[in-house]
Specification:
The structure is a single chain. The chain is of the alpha+beta class. Helix content is about 55%, strand content about 15%. It contains 14 helices and 7 strands. A hairpin with a 7-residue loop joins strand 4 and strand 5. The structure holds flavin-adenine dinucleotide. The site of flavin-adenine dinucleotide has 22 residues, from strand 1, strand 3 and helix 14.
Length: about 375
């Protein structure tokens, strides 16, 4: 594919992206087959990540999703669980989790969203309650989280009590996830971004050791809602990067396959390309900002909603240009057109991001900032 991928991402990541694109339709057909490729250096880079900055993650995720986002999301690696463990895990929890993920190339899950209460952390109903001095019982229903049925380790978010200080992140080990009588996991039928393997999990009175509760060594202010907000601020630029890589892939594809340049509105394409460039620049600044002050929410919300929007806009341009033949003659593009609408929901919809931005503005005005 001609276009800007190679110059934006550099040789190594461009080659990784080419590999992801080569296996994209295979993984869409059977996400499980990702494990055949687990020793590929692109996948090992994800698996071994333990210390990346937000900026490094953003650059890597954009490049890999220029290849194919479905493949990237199917991959093993610490992913979102790794971020919350880095944020609030104690040394033993960190060592156990990262050793396990790296030595087995494990897929991981991170479950906040619930079937009845969505992903608004304050409303979740999943609970842990004390059983003995250092054991608890976990009862939860979670849905729409990536790799849930395939993962061998991961984190679920629950409440130990009402209020923001009652939030807890629980590390589920392979032993918990294999308790077939107490835990049910299944893959959900999906139409888009099938590689993400969105799943459902339910468990009743699953015994949890206190050492599996993250952040017990911290005060509840740091391990509760604040940890969730901080972790989501670190994740959200990643979703923006996924959408941006996808958007650049569709742009490059359109550019190199549009054989009738007169019909392809050159001005429209130039406009979209400059939007891609400026959103990328903004995203990198955001990631830098998150590395410096991970509690500030507003920039990552802005970046996420802008990247989602440009990915959808470029996809609509592709539909306009190719028409229905796209779905017959361009299978990878047809896949991307299906996948693109998932980004709106990952890490919160546009309305929710805009509300974050508005709340920040309101607080700044109240403090005399604007
Ligand atoms: C590919 C993919 C991967 C995902 N991965 C994970 C994962 O790994 N872990 C996980 O826990 N979840 C995951 N999710 C779930 C995702 O985070 C939620 O679906 C998303 O945050 C939307 O939340 P919700 O379903 O609660 O919808 P809601 O937030 O309830 O939104 C429903 C509708 O109401 C609107 N709305 C909501 N609140 C307001 C408001 N205050 N004002 C105005 N309108 C509002 C929304 O815009 C939307 O149109 C994933 C989802 C997808 C699609």
């Amino acid at each position: 594919v001609k276009g800007y991928g190679q110059s934006i991402y550099g040789h190594k990541y461009f080659e990784y992206a080419r590999f992801f694109r080569k296996i994209a339709l295979e993984i869409e057909n059977n996400p499980e087959s990702i494990m055949q490729y687990k020793s590929h250096p692109a996948i090992q880079e994800l698996v071994m990540d333990q210390t990346s900055t937000c900026l490094e993650r953003v650059q890597r995720l954009e490049a890999l999703c220029y290849g194919d986002a479905g493949v990237m999301l199917a991959c093993p690696g610490p992913s979102l669980s790794g971020l919350i463990i880095r944020e609030i895990g104690d040394e033993e929890q960190k060592q156990y989790f990262f050793d396990f993920v790296q030595s087995t190339s494990a897929r991981t899950l991170f479950a906040l969203t619930e079937p009845d209460f969505g992903s608004e952390a304050g409303h979740i109903q999943s609970r842990i309650k004390p059983k003995t001095v250092d054991t608890f019982e976990l009862s939860c229903k979670k849905c729409l989280f990536g790799n849930g049925a395939a993962a061998s380790i991961g984190v679920v978010l629950v409440k130990a009590s009402e209020g923001p200080l009652g939030m807890r992140a629980i590390l589920l080990t392979p032993d918990h996830l294999n308790e077939v009588n107490k835990i049910t996991r299944k893959k959900l039928n999906c139409f888009a971004l099938i590689g993400a393997q969105l799943s459902y999990l339910e468990c009743e009175n699953l015994e949890i050791d206190s050492k599996n509760i993250l952040g017990m060594h911290l005060n509840p202010l740091r391990s509760g809602m604040m940890a969730i907000i901080t972790t989501f601020n670190q994740m959200r630029p990643g979703v923006a990067a996924i959408a941006l890589g996808h958007a650049q892939a569709v742009w490059d594809y359109l550019y190199s396959h549009a054989n009738n340049r007169k019909r392809l509105q050159q001005i429209e394409m130039d406009g979209l390309l400059s939007q891609l460039k400026s959103i990328r620049q903004y995203l990198h600044q955001t990631a830098n900002q998150v590395d410096k002050s991970p509690r500030v929410q507003v920039y990552s919300s802005m970046a996420k909603q802008m990247a989602t929007l440009i990915a959808e806009k470029i996809s609509q341009t592709a539909i306009k240009y190719f028409g229905l033949s796209l779905f017959i003659d361009h299978p990878i593009l047809a896949k991307w057109i299906r996948d693109v609408y998932a980004y709106e929901y990952m890490e919160g919809t546009t309305y929710v991001q805009l509300q974050n931005i508005f709340n920040h503005y309101k607080t700044s005005v109240a403090q005399g900032g604007y």
